[in-house]
Specification:
Number of domains: 1
CATH topology: UDP-N-acetylmuramoyl-L-alanine:D-glutamate ligase
Structural class: alpha/beta
Helix content: 25-40%
Order of helices and strands: EEEHEHEEEEHEHEHEHHEEEHHHE
CATH class: Alpha Beta
Radius of gyration: 19 Å
CATH superfamily: Ribokinase
Distance between the termini: 34 Å
Number of strands: 15
Largest sheet: 11 strands, mixed
């Protein structure tokens, strides 16, 4: 089984408008609500791949119950900890070819709630083969909370796939216990290096730096341009197929799901890279976030070209 961690989940609400008028009434007919959060997106894709998967984090209030109901209907095991606060909404207003997002900060986690999660995490990790950790921390948790999870996973000899950014990623990478895989995009790599942007050559050079040492897999996604991937001392460039992107939101989460499933299945380097990236392509082709057409998996994999650099 694979365990996905989403500590700051949300109910994702999408409003589609022909045009968005500021300081006026905007009426919406096309509304989509779904259980959201990066790790929950990972869990959704894993469930569609027929992987046994559990989702964990913090949930509270009516919105928390909504998420529990949603993941239950997808056969995702519910390992969430109940909290006193209310789970957040995240609203996306899609208009005029643009997307305006309104993101609530979410609840504040108490010390006792954090301790309860850590206690249960120590139990859950014994039941799974690997763990994915995605997204931001809710208020109330220390910035080294992911470090604590990594240390626990290391003690249990369970690999961790980490997808986060900014100070949280820097803090985690500075720890002696490293993730098995990280998945920054090119902008996040630039932030780690203190640059405004980076090209592919700079990414390749950065992957040889001490910052990424002792991390077996580093997957740097480049959007429609594919990815640059390091496995141990070997670096690959992967070019994905050109498709019409319907909704690219959640494609990075889908890539994490693909790598998690592929690692559990024991796929070798190039096969694993193709399988992982294929999930991101498939997600971009669907309107729903964290959704893939499993009948197109083989076709998509065949369209991806991987070569050593």
């Amino acid at each position: 089984m694979i365990l996905t961690i989403t500590l700051n989940p949300a109910v994702d609400i999408s409003y589609k408008l022909d045009r968005f008028s500021v300081d006026k009434v905007n009426r919406v007919e096309n509304v989509l609500k779904t259980a959201g959060g990066k790790g929950i997106n990972v869990a959704k894709v894993l469930a569609q791949l027929d992987e046994e998967v559990a989702a964990a984090g913090f949930l509270g209030g009516n919105l928390g119950e909504y998420i529990r109901s949603e993941i239950g209907s997808l056969a995702i095991k519910d390992y969430f900890v109940e909290i006193a606060g209310e789970t957040r909404n995240c609203i996306a207003v899609i208009h005029n070819g643009q997307q305006t997002e309104i993101l609530e900060s979410g609840p504040t986690i108490s010390r006792s709630e954090a301790d309860e999660f850590l206690k249960k995490f120590s139990e859950y990790i014994q039941r799974v083969e690997l763990v994915t950790i995605s997204g931001s921390l809710p208020k109330g948790l220390p910035t080294d909370f992911y470090v604590t999870l990594l240390e626990n996973a290391h003690t249990s000899n369970k690999p961790v796939l980490l997808d986060t950014n900014g100070t949280l990623l820097k803090t985690t990478l500075a720890n002696k216990h490293k993730p098995y895989l990280i998945k920054p995009n090119d902008e996040e790599v630039a932030d780690l290096l203190g640059e405004k942007s980076v090209n592919e050559m700079q990414i390749v050079e950065a992957l040889g730096s001490p910052m990424f040492a002792n991390i077996p897999w580093v997957v740097v996604t480049l959007g429609a341009e594919g990815a640059i991937v390091k496995h141990d001392q070997t670096i690959y460039h992967a070019q994905t197929s050109k498709v019409t992107a319907v909704n690219p939101v959640g494609s990075g989460d889908s890539v994490v799901a693909g790598f998690a499933a592929g690692i559990r299945q024991g796929l070798a380097d190039e096969s694993l890279i193709k399988f992982g990236l294929a999930m991101g392509v498939l997600n971009a082709m669907e309107e729903k976030t964290g959704h893939i057409d499993v009948e197109k998996v083989d076709w998509t994999i065949k369209q991806i070209n991987v070569k050593r650099i």
